[in-house]
Amino acid sequence: MKRLINDPYDVVEEMLAGYVTAHKDHVVLDQASEAQGRVVVSKSAKQKDKVGVIIGGGSGHEPLFLGYVGKGFADAAVIGNINTSPSPDPCYASVRAVDTGKGCIYLYGNYAGDVMNFDMGAEKADEEDGIRVETVLITDDVISSENIEDRRGIAGDFFVFKVAGAKAEMGGDLDEVVAVAKKCNDVTRTMGVAMSSATLPSKGGPIFEMEDGDMEIGMGIHGEPGVRRGKIEPADKVIDQIMAPILADLPYTAGDEVYVLVNSLGATPLMDLHICFRRVAEILAEKGITIYKSLIGSYASSMDMAGMSVTLVKLDDEIKELLDYPCDTPYFKQF
Amino acid sequence: MSDYILNKDYFIAVIEDLIEMAEEKKEYFIQLDSAIGDGDHGMNLSIGFREVSKNLEEWKSEDINTIFKNAGTALLDKVGGAAGPLYGGFFMKFGLPVKGKDEVTFDEFIEMMESGVAIIEKRGKAVVGDATMVDTLRPAVDAMKKAYHDDGCSPKEAMKIAMEVGAQGSDSTVPLIAKKGRAMRLGERAIGHRDPGSASSAAMLEIFYKHMP
Fold first, then answer.
1. CA distance B43 to B63
2. Where are the coiled-coil regions (chain A) (predicted)?
3. Residues of chain B with C-beta less than 8 angstroms from the C-beta of A13
4. ipTM (interface pTM)
């Protein structure tokens, strides 16, 4: 195993201890007992009356989720064990930590465990404190199911979180924040490829076996098997296979504008990402689709997995304005 | 038959054995979950039951319901994911029908099982055939009821039947297309793999049987 950790049972707590110390200008760890040390709160939270934006999910996807806690983005992130949803009490504690009387929104990728735990957190916030909490599930992974509501959330989380954070910062009410989050999710599509498994600290080895030199198209961010495994092909051929399902999943016409994210799952270098992005740009140019802006780097990882994903957000003026709105977090700043 | 009693020692022995099982089978559950999910099931049960283990000594003086409620709360808090609400829910509801008691009849034990399995079905929104824990637990509890109420089996025989039917239920997840949880995204690719939750549930039934007087 090529990981620098101590006891595998301590990885999440030790990561959080390092994170809140390193980024002490931006975040603190919620000290409420229900938070169980698993709620990262923005120092800007409760500074003014606004809808509370809460994101979260399992660990192992850094900088998702904790990296996006800060002014203009998320007010709090709830952190679970590796590849595992946080439990209900931290989800509940996060509401108390950020609510200013305008209600809160939970945003997370669509996974059965996350839904159960966050729903229980929302129920408790309603029952004990009368705080209204709404939920928007992110379902950007095109290949994970034919039914959109069954799809999982991966790197597209970033954009949905961003628009909700901006709308809340601009003073939108809870219904308006929910509406823009849903709208952004509706126009966000992602697909990925993996070339190795992440290393599971508890196992001291890969989550799943993958022969050196193989790739798997459509693999999930937790290593859920994808649609096709084969020998690694040249970048352009791989991108062609990723872009086709993404573009086929929404009605695109010449003149449309997109925001592009080429995301590393952890071990794929910036060199490769830019080579891949080059092909993405070529394909979009052929279709007459304009790239408004691009992000290239690791925004939603699977620890040390080799692989990448492409996300397209089909833009309109409202989504554009929200994505451009200023924010200041440890892993995404915009002024 | 009505003088058949399960006392607190039985339930504590079950919990102690579950703690051991979670450690012993950790690698096995990780392997099962790696094939179709994200590999977290083994580690999560281990994290949860280690927390139960830390506090069990302190809880032993409480009544059966409180012990299980505490254990369920520990699982819910420490585990997260799907296993937390499901196993945590099972234990939190398991003792509810016998609040305040230190020993239970077999009729009450059946009620406890029913109460626990019902919350798993409700929270997981799963039915038999979805390739989940419910494939093990629902047929097991139904078979136990029938064996005891209709077929004249002794409590221990009825629990043995539940254990066997549960194991078959777990086996039945192997050729299924998973319809819940992460494996559901795999569709036909999940065929040929055992659902990890169904396997840990079957192991739990074995423990409930093993310690029965």
1. 29
2. none
3. none
4. 0.84
